[in-house]
Amino acid sequence: MANSRREFLRKSAALTTGTLAAAGAAQAAPLAVPQTNRQPGHGMEETAYGLPSKFEAHVKRRRSDVLKNRQNLSDWSMTPLQYQPGIITPNGLVYERHHAGTPDIDPATHRIAIHGMVKQPLVFTMDDLHRYPSVSRFHFLECSGNGLTDWLKPASTTVQQTHGLLSGALWTGVPMSTLLEEAGVDPKGTWALLEGADASAHTRSVPMEKMLDDALVVYAMNGEALRPENGYPVRALLPGWEGNISVKWLRRIKVGDQPWHFRSETARYTDPMPNGKWRQFSMVMETKSVITSPSGGQKLKGPGFYEVTGLAWSGTGKIRAVDVSTDGGRNWREAVVEEPVMDKSLTRFKIGWNWDGGPAMLMSRAVDNNGYVQPSVADLQKTRAIVGFVQHHNAIQPWSVNAAGEVRNAINQA
Amino acid sequence: MQSTRLKLLAVSAGVALIALGCASMNGDPMAVHSSAGIPLGKTGPHAVQPLPDKPRFGHAISEADLASWNIDVRTPDGQGLPPGRGSVAQGKKIFEARCVACHGADAKGGAVYGAMVGGIGTMNSNPRVLTPGSMYPYAPILFDYTRRAMPMDGPQTLSNDEVYALSAYLLNLNGLVPADAVMDAQSLPKVQMPNRNAFVVDDRPDAKATRCMTNCK
Predict the structure, then answer these.
(1) Regarding the domain delimited by B74-190, which CATH topology (the fold level of the hierarchy) does it fall under?
(2) DSSP assignment, residue A242?
(3) Sheet strands (E) in A233-303
(4) Which residue of B has its CA nearest to A179?
(5) Contacts of residue B74 in chain A, CB cutoff 8 Å?
(6) What pLDDT digit, counting tens, does each position of A292-340 carry?
(7) How far is it, in rounded angstroms, from Cα B211 to Cα B217?
(8) What domains appear along chain A, each with residue ranges and CATH number?
């Protein structure tokens, strides 16, 4: 880390020195005393839930507007990653995907049942859950359909549209293993189903190994109770796996000895493969990165220094390195990967770039601690069939910059 | 499914030697698999707080007392399908009363959702036309999904007979059962779905990108 930090400082310094001397910044206007210095601000309210400044009103989740659904019950909204510094997504901006709307669940009446191949079927209240020793962990959450509109040609404009089914949070809850051990899992119980209390009664099958490994029963995110749209009062969280399997509004866990092959793990969330085949149980979200600034729809304000920054993440471990190219993938430089770097968590990378005012192509490429290198779409196309509703898109995202400084989605130019 | 099962067996035999919970191996980011051969990704972190006196706050309940929640169907063999039966003709009536507004006449697509008929034989074309008929590997998926999630304005309000009837109707529209078919816990799992053998277990990582740094293309 120390080495790359020093290298970054050295490179940035080398890149910027000439520019500042040559171009400099325009002379600043004389300063007047602002009105906010001369009158009191708003008084404090007795009780309040703080909201962002009114000047930040453009920072919002947006319903999918590239692939538009004709109803808003089974729909998704996307996180404005272009405005997110750091690795934590504020709760009001965490992406949403639900299949039959957001239920309003009273925690006093909510129950979680564990049954099936267990010694003793059990029911837990929310009060019960809060009494267990808890754990808090940083993890990303990404929909398997993140990027589904942009494989072979650009359809999206912004990084919110291309990659906004991605959020990072600190999740708090009880290890799934704590509850399962109390119920006593039959040694032959190799799978479990998770089921929601929403109007889709959303259901998935999970290998028992994952349930007993790092799966959590989560009731809080980023220091407060889950938001209704993210599973209040309780959801499953299967770190590093596609968001769909982290069942929200969790009401039931059933242990069995085979997967159930539900609709959401056969007709949906499977990947088209050559020769008419479908890849099933592809739950792990593979190593991926994207530049969030400069990104699609933004405009550079003339030649000079820019910090190229973005997010990297991996369902298979930690981010080891992120490389950035500004010439369309011909040459790459290793970016600074900012601490903390955690398993299955969003990771922030940054690198200085001196734009010369000519056409450029920005790309990032993540490498994980296993040595896996983030592929291009062309790399993925060697083994997968890119037809229709394609899932698990972890390819490199190129952004083109033209001489006017306009940044555009260039997914077809990698 | 035969091929998938064989593959499952082969994969689980292959990974049986890998102790679960060990760190991923160098150069093999997906070395950790479940006993069924499902890639698990990186394992851990695990609970670190020691629990010498394990708290137990769960309340015992009998399977009978949670029967109203126990609605899942194991779709390959139909385990969990309830008693009841329904015909194609009955299903048509229910469809026209409860489903047609979103799915359209004869399930050919409506105001909100696309077609639920056709697409069989399109899995080698682009796009693949995905309907319950062309995509579902097992017919009981129709029953499980319809009972838990449909109709959208009133899920879990249909009787089991009605759900069997809707399953029969949709299968008939897709040419998979005759017009006089009656679906129940015995007949539904026996319907042969065209996509039954199309699924293969996750075999990623499938991409082999290299980390070239200079003059890469």
Answers:
(1) Cytochrome Bc1 Complex; Chain D, domain 2 (1.10.760)
(2) B
(3) 235-237, 250-256, 271-273, 277-280, 288-293
(4) B58
(5) 256, 258, 260-261
(6) 999 999 999 999 999 999 999 999 999 999 999 999 999 999 999 999 9
(7) 12
(8) 91-279 (3.90.420.10), 288-413 (2.60.40.650)
Q: What residues does each domain of chain B span?
A: 1-42, 74-190
Sign of CA dihedral B91, B96, B98, B103: positive
CA distance A143 to chain B (A): 16
String of DSSP letters for B174-210 = TTSS-TT-EEETTTGGGSBPTTTT-EEE---------
Structure tokens at B204: 């990623």
Size of interface A-B (CB pairs under 8 A): 278
Residue in B66, B60, B32, B104 with CA at minimum distance from that of residue A241: B32
Closest CA relative to residue A194, chosen from A179, A205, A181:
A205
DSSP A167-231: EEEEEEEEEHHHHHHHH-B-TT--EEEEEESSTT--EEEEEHHHHHHT-EEEEEETTEEPPGGGT
Structure tokens at B70: 């126990």
With 70 as the cut, is the pLDDT of residue B6 above it? no
| Conformation bin of residue B58: beta by default, left when phi > 0, alpha when psi is -120 to 50 | beta
Residue A414: band (very low, low, confident or very high) from pLDDT cuts 50, 70, 90? confident
Whether A234 has a pLDDT exceeding 70, the answer reads yes
- Scanning the structure block, which residue is given the tokens 């009972």? B147
Provide the residue count of chain B: 217
Residues ≥6 apart with Cβ < 8 Å to B155: A100, A199, A200, A201, B148, B149
Inter-chain residue contact B61 with A373, CB threshold 8 Å: no
Distance CA A298, CA A294 (A): 6
Greatest distance between any 2 Cα atoms in chain A:
77
